[in-house]
Amino acid sequence: MWSVRIFKTRTVAINSIKTGKVKINGTTAKPSNLLSGDELVEVQKGGFNFSFRVIELIEKRVSASLAEPCYRDETPMEEKMKYENWFTGKAAPERREKGTGRPTKRERREIDDFKSLYIYDWDEE
Question: What is the pLDDT of residue 30?
Fold first, then answer.
């Protein structure tokens, strides 16, 4: 899972397996479980359910372009759309011009006042 870049780190991959978020051919995987070719791996990651078909096993972590032929993405289209829709409409983080430094206390208060006018605070309900 880690070597083909489905998970960012080995620790995250192992923790996901230990917590039952990874299934192989419909059964919950164990960290000691060995994969073979043509197995279906289902992963729950970030609230989304992904499915991958194992094509080739590799021993070491490789670049994304080399890892791509090792599996086939079989995630259902409605789950892919759910994943893509989650990113739609997300605002970019706030940025300051390069070289302006951190905001002063006065600028921070002005920014907070501006935000309070346009951003609904869900905690005030």
Answer: 87
| Amino acid symbol at 30 | K
Numbers of helices and strands, H then E, in the chain: 4, 5
Q: pLDDT digits over 91-124, tens only?
A: 666 778 888 888 899 998 988 888 777 655 444 4
Q: What was the pLDDT predicted at 21?
A: 92
Contact status, residue 7 vs residue 46, Cβ threshold 8 Å: no
H or E segment to which residue 106 belongs: helix 105-118
Q: CB-based contacts of 16: which residues, under 8 Å, 6+ apart?
A: 1, 7, 22, 43, 44, 45
> Of 99 and 83, which is predicted with more confidence?
99
Paired strand residues for 73:
52
| CATH 3.40.50.2300 holds for 10-87 | no
Rounded Cα distance, 35 and 54, in Å:
8
The domain spans of the chain are: 10-87
